[in-house]
Amino acid sequence: MNKIFCSALTAVVAGAMLTGCAMPWEKGADDDVAPGGYSYTADSNSEQKQAYRWLIEPTINADNIISFDGSQVDPNNEKNTAYANYSVIRQNGKYGIIDYSGNMVVPAEYDDYYTCWCGEVTLFNIINEKNDEYEYCSIDSSNQVVYYAAEHHDSSPKYYWNSNEEKIYVKDADEEQGEEYTGKKAVVVCEADVKKSDNGFYDISPVSEPLYGLAKKDKLILDMQYTDFYAPAYKGAGLTCIAFENDEGKWGYVGSDGKTIIDFKCDGDMSAYCGKVIDDEMAVHPYLFTDDYLPVSIDSSYGYYDIDGNCIVKPGEFDQARPAHNGKAWVMKSGKWGVIAFGDAPVEEDSSEEETTTSYITTTTTSTTTKTTSVSTETKKATETTPSLTQPSETTEVSTNTETVTETVTEPVTETDPPAPEPEPEPTPEQ
């Protein structure tokens, strides 16, 4: 495996990179317009349901925004949730990290990116490829921006079908030999030649131009008829799905029982690439379900399906669409990017009889660090309001001479009228 994706090298990167990060959108005259929405009807007897509403109107300029569906993350060894809380943004040919509030967490100053089975998202610059010199930047499990990458090996299991013996075999990606698969979950299998070696393990070689099928307990659920697939690497397909490509180059989605969820009419997506740690640079595949939603590309336009196979946003609504995390997803419309939220929640704020006012208290913390820079990943509000592009101010100053990081974070505090004093008890009559 290329050392760029598994090196534990700590890069020397100046902390001043995060100084003066500007928001990537340009505020226009229509930014104060109330968010719109989109409704759909699941069937002829159903009432209309609101599919999504805008959290950030499509006003952000970017070459691309890349979100990860998490299908290649190991749920038993997940050490980082960056893949679900952040996205990679590409601006002017460089990569950075952006959150779902539109905050530019890491400026777009890196050459490339990848994600890992542990959930970590990493950016890197190539300093000297021959000498394995790189600069790294990622977000660790405590939401710190760090300038190194931990060493990770690809241990994702690959499954194979021996048609002569009608058995399933399994081999980890970083292992040379495999063994018989005795698990109970349905898995995608690849046509392969399998021979038992003297040490009791098996030499497994995929056939030339292999086909793929779905098998469970040494029985084929779907015949070996598909030219490619995209499936969860570690967990079963019950909570997401499996995508197969047919001989016409179209993708369809099936469940772990082999039943079709979405017919073979979808296209692959170059932006679904996760990086060489867990993905093939030459492969083009679609996304899988997250949060029960799936972005699909059909005839060069995008929409969304739910886990039951209902089309909730017709293709053609968006120019680009990304996987949903925590009920939110990045989409592109009319050439600009925004964030939508799924569900039936009302778009407008609910009226409240009690008036509340919001003021801000500014706190400053100073710490000395050599490798990490603390970032705020969300805006905490004491009252629930309709999301807005206006965020409380947040600044980060970095002194590279003393390596002292000073953060000024402005957090909202809700003020309400003080409670009325309790009435004094009536005096007891004298006896």
The end-to-end span amounts to: 94 Å
The computed structural class is mainly beta
Low-confidence stretches: 1-35, 345-421, 426-431
Overall 3D form = globular
Q: If helices are DSSP runs of H or I spanning 4 or more residues, what is the number of helices?
A: 1
User: What is the helix fraction of residues, given as a range?
Assistant: under 10%
State mean pLDDT (0 to 100 scale).
Answer: 77
Radius of gyration: 26 Å
Count every beta strand, where a strand is a DSSP E run of 2 or more residues: 31
The main sheet comes to: 7 strands, mixed
- What proportion strand? 35-45%
Account of the protein in words:
This protein is mostly beta strands. The chain is 1% helix and 44% strand. It is built from 1 helix and 31 strands. The strands form 7 sheets. Strands 11, 12, 13, 14, 15, 16 and 17 form a 7-stranded mixed β-sheet that branches. The longest helix has 4 residues. The termini are far apart. The N terminus and C terminus are likely disordered.
Question: What topology does this entry show?
Answer:
Blueprint: E1 37-40, E2 49-60, E3 64-66, H1 82-85, E4 86-91, E5 94-99, E6 104-110, E7 112-115, E8 121-128, E9 133-139, E10 144-146, E11 157-162, E12 167-172, E13 179-180, E14 187-196, E15 202-206, E16 212-216, E17 219-226, E18 228-230, E19 242-245, E20 251-254, E21 260-266, E22 293-298, E23 301-306, E24 311-318, E25 320-321, E26 328-333, E27 336-342, E28 357-368, E29 372-374, E30 394-399, E31 404-415
Parallel strand pairs: 11-14
Antiparallel strand pairs: 1-2, 2-27, 3-4, 4-5, 5-6, 7-8, 8-9, 9-10, 10-29, 11-12, 12-13, 14-15, 14-16, 16-17, 18-19, 19-20, 20-21, 22-23, 23-24, 25-26, 26-27, 28-31, 30-31
